[in-house]
Amino acid sequence: METNYIIYKSVLVLAVFGITLFIAMYSTYAERKIAAFLQDRLGPNRAGPFGILQPLADGVKMFMKEEIIPDVSNKFLFLLGPSLAMLTCLMTGAVIPWGSSVAIAGQSYSLQVADVNIGILYLLGVTSVGVYGIMIGGWASNNKYALLGALRASSQMISYEIGMGLSIIALLMSTGTLSIGEIAAQQHGGHWNVLYQPLGFLIFIICAFAETNRAPFDLPECESELVGGYHTEYSSMKLGFYLFAEYINMFISSAIIATLYFGGYNMPFIGRFVHDPNMLVLLGTAFLFIKIAFFIFLFMWVRWTLPRFRYDQLMNLGWKGLIPLAIANIGITGIVMWWLGKI
Amino acid sequence: MTIYLFYFLSFLAILSGLMVILEKNPIHSVLYLVITFFAIAGHYLLLNAQFLFAVQIMVYAGAIMVLFLFVIMLLNLNKEAEPHKNNAMKFAAVIAAGLLLLVFVAALKGTSELPAPQESVGDIGLVKNLGKVLFKQFLLPFETASLLFLAAMVGAVMLGKRDTK
């Protein structure tokens, strides 16, 4: 039993790890293709049919580039920056329920690595630690542009974390649990949280855009003002790690949005057509990935549609727009729940 | 297993705590302090206080230390800019720290008379139980503390506001 359990968890961890990296890798390809589509171009089409080997070619290019570590920088911290960025973005996958339980030979195997009962707090904690990767990297580069980019990134992330946390509080009030597995299970049968928390969802997704440093909030790497932002001094695969971490963050945020607000692995009416429980679980996982793919597409769609914010506009939106709205949302949720007699 | 983890975390906390004060570079000091906070968060987890663990990481390691880093990075402290303290100040600091040590030693002296800690510490640290205790048994202190935070917040906003003359 004990070894069985360890093997099952290790396989699950490795699978989540591999799938995350794979999807992040192909997100880079998808981004370029979608950008090309939106701008009436062809996009990458040289490596393999339709250019599907492009991510591999990009990866090889990144590894082959000359690695430059600035002489005046602190070498250890310079290396720690991208490693931390990569570490924190991969840690969140552990608490996301990728599906309900599969039953094999009388044993039930949950498709969630760790169903901790503080799942959401864990997510917020990892997000807040994620700032260090950018900050340490930006400081250790010993470059003014990199430092400014790092400061922008961290103040932006701290500001939007508040809005994100407050929008989640309203969600927690209506679900009554901190466990992400339970929140996903509660949305069975079309009771998706987005129907009960539309405003909370809107605030959450805006904050998710800012947390992942994606356009229109990609001010930390605003080329027109900061050369390259916090990764100005980075080259070779260390730059690759920073860029890759952004795509992993995007994938994980999409997974969190899909799980918290859009039913996770649940799909209404599917139980009428499929009756084999294991088949249902696998279909549920497939649906979750379809939802995630949609949100990744949304991230890219927005990036290639909206222009970048100015920094004061970003801060105004975060502090004077989203935080009061999120607090109002908490109040409204409380009043409605009291009115419906749920508390 | 737990006992080894406890020793490891304690070792880490004390070592990085020492490094905070021994390290010359202020940025390195802050980073060691972050490690200390993580080690303490690990202790909370060993005590089954999951909520405290999450809050320790979110608030101390995540938010407060990032603000510390912010300030130090912007000040760009180096050897030339370091303010020199005179001997009277150093002497006062040593006396104050020595007195604090005395208090700690006095507080620890009585611990041998305490009953041995129980193996399982229960699940008071879980969010559900903690919330019930906070909002039922300790409602008044909890609300008073939140008023204090509100006052601090208003004060911070007032200080940050520029004079509009």
Short précis:
The complex is a heterodimer of chains A (343) and B (165). Chain A has 343 residues and is mostly helical. Helices cover 68% and strands 2% of the residues of chain A.
Description:
The complex is a heterodimer of chains A (343) and B (165). Chain A is mainly α and 343 residues long. Chain A is 68% helix and 2% strand. Chain A has a two-stranded antiparallel sheet. In chain A, a hairpin with a 2-residue loop joins β1 (101-104) and β2. In chain A, α2 crosses α11 (236-261) and α4 (119-129) packs antiparallel against α6. Chain A is globular. The N and C termini of chain A lie far apart (42 Å). In chain A, 43% of the residues are buried. The mean pLDDT of chain A is 83. The N and C termini of chain B lie far apart (64 Å). Chain B has 2 domains: 1-78, Four Helix Bundle (Hemerythrin (Met), subunit A) (Up-down Bundle), CATH 1.20.120; 126-165. Chain B has 165 residues and is an all-alpha fold. Chain B has helices at 2-22, 26-46, 50-75, 87-109, 127-137, 139-160. Chains A and B meet through α4, α5 and α6 of A and α2 and α3 of B.
CATH class of the largest domain in chain B: Mainly Alpha
Strand content of chain B: under 5%
Gyration radius of chain A, in Å: 21 Å
Q: What series of H and E elements makes up the topology of chain B?
A: HHHHHH
Spell out the blueprint of helices and strands:
The complex is a heterodimer of chains A (343) and B (165).
Chain A: H1 2-38, H2 54-64, H3 75-91, E1 101-104, E2 107-110, H4 119-129, H5 131-140, H6 144-175, H7 180-186, H8 193-196, H9 198-211, H10 223-226, H11 236-261, H12 270-273, H13 277-303, H14 311-339
Antiparallel strand pairs in A: 1-2
Helix pairs in contact in A: 1-11, 1-13, 2-11, 3-5, 3-11, 4-6, 5-6, 6-9, 6-14, 9-11, 9-14, 11-13
Chain B: H1 2-22, H2 26-46, H3 50-75, H4 87-109, H5 127-137, H6 139-160
Helix pairs in contact in B: 1-2, 2-3
